[in-house]
Amino acid sequence: MTKRYVVLVSALIFVILLSGMNLLNNNEQIVKAEGETLIASDKSQRLIDADTKAFEKDTSDIQSVVWQTIEKDAETMMKDSKGRFKKSWAVYMIKEARKYDIDPFIVYELLKVETGHTFSPDTVGPKTIYGHAYGMAQFMENTAPWIADMAGVAYEKSMLFDPYYSMKLSVVYLDYLYEKYGRWDEALTAYHRGMTGMENYKKANGTAKSQYATVIQSKANQHDAVAMN
Predict the structure, then answer these.
(1) Which of 4, 97, 140, 223 could form a disulfide with 102 if both were Cys (CB 3.0 to 4.6 A apart)?
(2) Same domain, 69 and 90
């Protein structure tokens, strides 16, 4: 009985030791696997960080190029106007035009024509059956309120003499007209004559290509051609 007991105990100890060794091996494998996972995870994180830095650099480079373009175009406008169109106005207007994917030189040339090349924020147009037009972008009191509402800004007549306010309304209105007609001839002639006036002009002449629209587009294209060189 004693020998059998010893054998049984020895066998039991052997089984316990064997189980312990298997457990240790399993733990080592788990630790190794976790280590490899951590290494893989670390590599992945480094790749993500590298991609993020590259993206941030690309974004920064793009923003730098965009700002340089804005600065260059603003300088061109200021020089072309002989300093009458301030650089700060130009920078603001260019940014607003870009929001709506409108050529800033279209807006610039429109403002030039509307103010008789003075770019004066205090411009008051001649009296018509509808009243006077006010400010740099020459809005009438029957038009400005609903354009201001469309732009999401408040309206007061006195605000039409603020150059930034006036330019914002002009960009929003041009965007509205271009979206409505899909062509700059119609959009610009409608800006100048009103939408009904444009339709009447088109019926009478077979085209919306007025002198007003032609001059503005021609001058804007000249600026764009120079800017691309």
Answers:
(1) 97
(2) no
